[in-house]
């Protein structure tokens, strides 16, 4: 038993003086300040395994909406264990004819893996303005480079499910249609900066609740 | 003169063994392989001050086009000295009624400073879908966070000029209209992922040269 | 049609001068030099959508081995499209009683999502030496912070499948048993640095093919 | 109008659970703790467009001083919107014979663009100890790699103005003369570590207010 | 003396508006929140030179323990001045027959320099599973790449001392034996994920104080 | 022996397809292109333990020069194993009255540990222009934040030795005196940008071999 005592000495000399050290991880403390690198860290004593586990992706998202699709995120905002670790995940559910509209993630690249059904996915490159399109089957993987416009569409006759991972705990999500037609972006400016017709802009604002 | 000799010894002991060291900068060598961090570095012996100077922004861009505007970049592709340094710059020229259409930079935040005229600029946030709009006068600065949709419009009665700097030597530029209407993105998919009408899509493809 | 011509001028002024720009992505060119940030980039003209799609995870890994498990990676070494993007993915197959032995990824955090069966997973923190254990069901997600020892075990009566994503295109994989017993690490040093008994070391070297 | 309701569901499923998410930007909250990555973020509800706009660079700096020059910064300390975004900007005013003395930015590379007059600028490389000098005219751009000694001098017969951008929201600024002669750096140590004569050191301490 | 006044104007225009700017360093404030990038910064007015100096490595660690060795860290947890700077240091003391057991640093690469005695050190690569072993004498340096298993053993007849530096202010330290045998990691799972025999596991748990 | 075969299958499925993967380290290949992130990587098959060991710091630097001091670096240029790992080391030798003149490392923070003698060290902060000075004894550690002017002076009656580690494999070294007086920096510009007298500049140019 002397051994235990003596080894403990080594261990203590290494870890004892820590002022709330968080060297292994930084579980989000949603009650403390947020900074450019993420949420503040929960004190280690309060961390449990459930901070590292997220069970919200086990149930299908609700696809009874216009786009017949749902995005269920497990970003740092929902999943405290990924805070500061440069990774996160989300679940996509696409009913038949479902679509995740054209969008970007301002802060991350994305890897998608199909776990059910068939998905037609694509992105557009910026430098050469090339459209990269592919129909993906179960088990297929596609990568969408950071910040580029992309989309996913159910390409088959049955529900599709995919998991999408991101190179950030906080990838962000900007859907082009929401940015243009679901807020108070003045129609005149929308039209001027997109060349869309006034009627088109007003129609989609009507659908998406935009004003201005 | 002994001093020179002796000090030279110190200096040599520090720098002599270098195998083409590039510790200060990495001027782009456009003939060598490119990697995720940028272009390969020119051998130091071939570097001159002109690699660090770019004179292409001294002349107005040609605004005799549909958008009455021009973007003249000094990114690592044009300006070898910024390679690997995490910064670059471009010039915006906007004739009266000129517009830089809605676009994103996938890899950088942007700071704009107006040096002539008046510019109305804006961006849309992703998390809260808020439109941030401002009319900027000479000397005013605006920041556009990385990866978010934004635009610039000449807000006055005369030509406007601005310089825009980026937090990357290679920020990229993706104009929404070009991504949708100036390539072979199938119209059916454009419509499905943007909710735009078929007539609108085809009209803009006509203007911008898109097919499919 | 004048429009096309005029707009094309804008577009050209932006993208024409590029010396093989890779601003959107950097698909791995396996024939060119590798650097600390990853593989060199394929020339854009040679890039196709298949560089961004990986189909190797659609088939089960072969679990007819000692550990009744398989890891099938889609890292930058196999999947050129993720090169430089800070993300990658792999598939885990665990037959009944299958186990992914204790291991670390030196260069990435990991997010695991169960897509079939039940997995008992765990990791050990460094600062406080706490074991975080959880039994995960279909759809559950767990995060393993970078560089920490962790493992996955089939916790049920049927085959389990999971996808694991990494915050690096090249996370690495170091299985403790392989590092100790499947190479020429001298037994005397293994014993001295792990406190394992000589008989134990030699037995496992026998199983795993180690020498010394 | 059902559409609005249904789409709103998607939008809510994406953004509703956020605990004050700041995924798009992190406007500085000067009343909260600061960390290595920058200031804490203002709560999104309190952010306005004015956080992203800085108007302080529209007026000339006061050049009625010894160096006949002024540096007016828009760093994260003055301009909350750039916090965490890896970019910032400043304005240089140089009256005739004005000079920005030899200095370094410890945390950023710099890109300078001349908007009025003529500026003679230079930097010294570390590895090869080469002086890179250039006379820059209106519209010319020069890059100064991170951490290297550099300077700007009015090279003409009239006032010069430039904007300088940085690859950090907080580049820092260390003017060699201020570091040596404008604080309590003991003269003996200044002389020992720079080889400057005692008389020279004391003279400049007199000018710049140094003691010791 | 007008000079002082005038120059002071320049200096003030640069630094006066700072809201507690920390542009040069971020000395740890152990009483404020911690984030993914490290501790919050002490207010500059409270910083003294002693925050940048650590005297705890001047005395030998206590090697009167089982492993006849000691690790004395100067990480951000002990040494506030390194917070956020991406570097830290520790002292190794190895009595005759002393050993730093097989371990990893999850967050950093390490450089070791021997300052007294002889040390036999090694690490195991992940990709190729190669053991790199070397006997190091006074003044010799060895680098251990991030996240890989490694160890140090006194290779001589007298006490050895080394300093080890890390590419992080918070490298972490995970000793394999402690992770397996000095906590409540269930023996059944230890055995299943390491192939070690039950007797071996229980023996080492006895020595190191593990339960389960 | 079946075990070996079966386990080998797992191992192969993980590592076999590698196209010269470098996931663990990137030993510098001095014959291949260099990029912003460092040297290209040697092919793994050619890597030996000696790439990770540097023996050049075991011998004292030659201090028979003007400054009675020597800096012996083990940066990526000399020590291929640290390439891309964000760390490096150097040895300082200071004879009695020896001095490492005022200098900066453009790309790294530094940690110094005294292993023999006494060293008086200091740095000057940029934001507040404060001089931080300390006399360090054997075993004492001091950190110098990135990019700030600093120096080391032998503070005792006997030779001093220190090891300095850096948060970069390629920290760079710019000695103020060399930058000003040991190249062709025109004296007129030196004087204009430093306020030094012409006689002082010419005197030091004479000592250090500068022209212009």
Question: Explain this structure to me?
Answer:
Chains A, B, C, D, E, F: Residues 1-20 form the signal peptide. Chains A, B, C, D, E, F: Disulfide bonds join 26-41. Chains A, B, C, D, E, F: Mn(2+) binds at residues 103, 105, 110, 150. The structure is a homohexamer of 212-residue chains. Chain A has 212 residues and is an alpha+beta fold. Chain A folds into 2 domains: 1-169, Jelly Rolls, CATH 2.60.120; 178-208, no CATH class. Helix content of chain A is 18%, strand content 29%. Chain A has 4 helices and 13 strands. In chain A, the strands form 3 sheets. The first copy, chain A, has a 5-stranded antiparallel β-sheet with strand order 4-5-12-7-10, with no helix packed on it. Chain A has a 5-stranded antiparallel β-sheet with strand order 9-8-11-6-13. A two-stranded antiparallel ribbon of chain A has the order 1-2. The first copy, chain A, is globular and about 60 Å long. The N and C termini of chain A lie far apart (76 Å). Residues 1-22 of chain A have low confidence and may be disordered. Chains in contact: A-B, A-C, A-D, A-E, B-C, B-D, B-F, C-E, C-F, D-E, D-F, E-F. At the A-C interface, strand 3, strand 5, strand 7, strand 9 and strand 10 of A face strand 3, strand 5, strand 7, strand 9 and strand 10 of C. Strand 10 of chain A pairs antiparallel with strand 3 of chain C.
